[in-house]
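ligand=nicotinamide-adenine-dinucleotide
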Amino acid sequence: MLAGSSGTKRTLIPPTDAPRAVSTETAAGERRVRVGLVGMGYIGSALHELIRDRFGALLEVAFVFDLDPGRLEGCRPEEVLDDLGRFGERQADLIVEAATAEVTRAHGLAFLAAGDYLPLSLSALVDPALERALSECAEHAGTRLLIPHGALAGLEGLEERRGSWESVTVTFRKDPLHIDFASVGGRPEIDGPTTLVDGSVREAARAYPRNLNAMIAAGLASGGLDRCRGIFVAEPGLDVHVAELDARAVDGSELRICKRQRIAGVSGTELPDAVIHSILRATSPGIGMQIV
Ligand SMILES: NC(=O)c1ccc[n+]([C@@H]2O[C@H](COP(=O)([O-])OP(=O)(O)OC[C@H]3O[C@@H](n4cnc5c(N)ncnc54)[C@H](O)[C@@H]3O)[C@@H](O)[C@H]2O)c1
């Protein structure tokens, strides 16, 4: 659990037998936050580098884990965890998932029973039973399910007025080369701008689970995945990821955001910086589900 987390731990799931965290201290005698990294691809390896090179005064790596050992070559041997089921031995305050939603399905409850958890693959939360179980586990354990704002900006504007929105629409546009079509059986022929899905965020994210994570964060921030509309457009030749948010409140207020971001693979190039700042924001107090 992060230093900023509040609440006495009442565990829904028995915690591991591991002793509590013994983080190293900074020169000023302050405790560094121990971060476990699951998934060392584009985002995970960049986070590892940021922690080592820029944020070592505040954060330290508790462990790194990836199914592909080749991804761990740049890490120190003592950082590498061979079996994710033994994460408790590394006494992480916070675990960040930068792999796939499968990690949350397999380990999310155990992570939350022991400390704070920040999953990037939010598509795990389209399953309402799992979302409820994770939130309840965090509340019982006095830990936090941290929802990163990720590829979208301005989610605090949605969250602050949650419940007052009459309609919220999030539209993502990407070149098909940066879309993961595995869930729909491969990339179709696309000649011009094509709407791949237009429905609730839950429906959209079920259809394209690797591409719409920040849309899910917007849904969670604004009042639920079924009340938020998600539109996903494949646009050949687009050299950025376009993320647009259009929210209208019952009192006639409006919130509009448009972000155009360079992209690498399925992720925007700003993601490592966005996630590091979510981790730093997570050092403030809180309990249960929280947008960071
Ligand atoms: N929340 C957001 O706004 C947002 C934005 C961009 C990407 N994402 C998500 O973040 C995740 C990581 O993105 P990326 O660009 O770094 O992907 P990536 O493909 O570059 O890296 C993923 C890494 O995870 C590893 N991996 C896969 N399954 C694993 C498992 N079960 N356990 C451990 N490791 C596993 C892979 O070997 C790979 O090294 C993706 O799921 C992506 O959809 C979220």
